[in-house]
């Protein structure tokens, strides 16, 4: 792919990053009313409704490996979002995203064939270690573990998203996977959210979260992954920690300690270095 073709794809990823972090900040404001799992249910349900209305996927297309990929994609979506929101309920947005980023960064380095990337990997690992909960420290250990778990599912999401994007036209595969993820979360989400899930104001906020955190960014990412190598996509997503920390400060009034700022900076710098040596996307 030419540079002129690669630039729009990078713009798609950057737009997805900003959208999803603003959506996460809005989602956190719903936790007191419908809980983290209830918020995830609202997010995925509204996103599924919109995507199905737009793409009108047919169940007849679910055969063999395509059906398996959609099921795995749906499970990854449900698990990734639930573990991340449970983490976000315990630790600041910028830290949660930085820890979660071990997933896409791992995908990026796995796709690399450059020795220099070992330096960037060490730099990123140093940043993540700086964020690791210290004994007697303020950072919640369970929240940190949940963020790391979300990162593992995020890695699976990147791989499966690329595979589903190549197998289905437009966003049909994404719509089917989002619907499955919604079904998987019906029980836990209703138990956590209760009657709050029926309040008009909370439903409106949930719809906004769905658009900002799911429908818009996932659609942008699917399109970008058709044009970018998985490794390139992974390191571009490294901007998430910096954007998340900025959004957390501006919207949620979440400040960061100097050590945490240094840690996030290390991860972003490592990713920028990895981007310079990442393999070019395959020709379309």
Explain this structure to me?
With 284 residues, the protein is mainly α. It has one domain. It is built from twelve helices and no strands. The protein is globular and about 45 Å long. It starts with a helix and ends in a 7-residue tail after the last helix. 54% of the residues are buried. The model has no long low-confidence stretch (mean pLDDT 86).
Compact summary:
The protein is an all-alpha fold and 284 residues long.
Which helices and strands appear, and what pairs or packs with what?
Elements: H1 3-28, H2 31-55, H3 64-88, H4 93-100, H5 102-111, H6 117-131, H7 141-167, H8 172-193, H9 200-225, H10 230-236, H11 240-252, H12 258-277
Helix content: over 70%
What's the gyration radius in Å?
A: 18 Å
Portion in beta strands = under 5%
* Number of H- or I-type helical stretches: 12
Largest sheet: none
Number of domains: 1
Euclidean distance between termini CA atoms = 7 Å
Please state the average pLDDT score: 86
List keywords for this structure.
284 residues; mainly alpha; 79% helix; 0% strand
């Amino acid at each position: 792919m030419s540079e002129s073709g690669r630039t729009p794809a990078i713009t798609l990823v950057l737009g997805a990053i900003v959208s999803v972090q603003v959506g996460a900040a809005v989602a956190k404001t719903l936790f007191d009313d419908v809980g983290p799992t209830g918020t995830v249910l609202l997010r995925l349900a509204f996103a599924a409704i919109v995507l199905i209305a737009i793409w009108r996927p047919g169940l007849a297309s679910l055969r063999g490996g395509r059906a398996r990929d959609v099921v795995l994609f749906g499970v990854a979506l449900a698990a990734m979002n639930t573990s991340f929101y449970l983490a976000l309920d315990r630790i600041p947005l910028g830290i949660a995203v930085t820890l979660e980023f071990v997933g896409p960064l791992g995908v990026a380095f796995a796709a690399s064939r450059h020795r220099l990337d070992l330096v960037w990997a060490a730099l990123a690992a140093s940043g993540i270690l700086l964020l690791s909960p210290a004994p007697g420290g303020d950072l919640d250990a369970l929240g940190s573990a949940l963020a790391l778990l979300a990162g593992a599912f995020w890695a699976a999401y990147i791989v499966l998203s690329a595979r589903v994007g190549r197998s289905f036209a437009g966003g049909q595969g994404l719509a089917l996977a989002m619907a499955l993820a919604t079904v998987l979360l019906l029980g836990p989400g209703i138990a956590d959210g209760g009657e709050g899930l029926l309040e008009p104001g909370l439903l409106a906020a949930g719809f906004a979260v769905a658009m900002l955190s799911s429908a818009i960014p996932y659609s942008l990412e699917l399109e970008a992954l058709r044009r970018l190598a998985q490794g390139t996509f992974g390191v571009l997503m490294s901007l998430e920690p910096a954007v998340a920390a900025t959004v957390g400060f501006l919207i949620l009034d979440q400040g960061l300690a100097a050590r945490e700022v240094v840690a996030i900076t290390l991860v972003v710098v490592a990713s920028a270095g990895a981007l310079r040596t990442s393999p070019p996307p395959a020709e379309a």
